Amino acid sequence: MSTLVVYDSNFGNTQVIAEAIAAELGEDTRAVPVAGLGLDSLTGVELLVVGGPVNGWRPSPRMQTFLAQFSHGTLRGVRAAAFDTRLRLFIHGDAAGKMAHALERAGAHIVARPVGFVVEGTHGPLAAGELEKAVAWAGSIVSAIHR
Ligand SMILES: Cc1cc2nc3c(=O)[nH]c(=O)nc-3n(C[C@H](O)[C@H](O)[C@H](O)COP(=O)(O)O)c2cc1C
After folding, report:
1. Residue 46 scores a pLDDT above 90
2. Which residues does the UniProt record annotate as the domain Flavodoxin-like (predicted)?
């Protein structure tokens, strides 16, 4: 299955998560930064995972630019999932849910619940156990697509 992980990352934390998820999804899976990415990069992709930091309670500006290219049906027949990285705040915002909605609106079938992985501060590091949580979440995607 042709799989792509598209991520945004200001300080490297989401990149680390994205690369761990890509490794778990299979050796052919690439993790690519979202900056400047066009819809042509999705040609032939059957499983799309997107992830980025919560920035101001929503997906980061670069991720919003990427998602804004989608129209109804862009992702028809594509399976997809979304994650974010976020602070341990009472009101942290939910970028993963918003990204998953955007993928779904474009016609994708969401195969894993949107999830947030915690960083200890704006620059990181990832909180203890979050990398392992990300690998387990990727494993749930593998299980879902082989069901
Ligand atoms: C401009 C800006 C806005 C942010 N807004 C939020 C926010 O609303 N909620 C939150 O939990 N974290 C927020 N953060 C913290 C980011 O979630 C954190 O920097 C990010 O997860 C780190 O991942 P990265 O290294 O991949 O960028 C913000 C960070 C920046 C720089």
Report:
1. yes
2. 3-142
What are the tens digits of pLDDT across the range 105-142?
Answer: 999 999 999 999 999 999 999 999 999 999 999 999 99
By alpha-carbon position, which residue is closest to atom 15 of ligand 1? 122
Q: Is 124 in the pocket of ligand 1 (CB under 6 A)?
A: yes
What average pLDDT does the structure give for the chain? 96
Q: Which domains does the chain have, with CATH numbers?
A: 3-145 (3.40.50.360)
Mean pLDDT of 59-82: 97
Residue 25 CA, chain-centre distance (Å), reads: 13
As a whole number of Å, the end-to-end CA separation of the chain is: 14
Query: What span, in angstroms and rounded, lies between the C-alpha atoms of 57 and 92?
Result: 6
Residue 70 Cβ contacting ligand 1 at under 6 Å = no
Q: Are 100 and 70 in contact (CB under 8 A)?
A: no
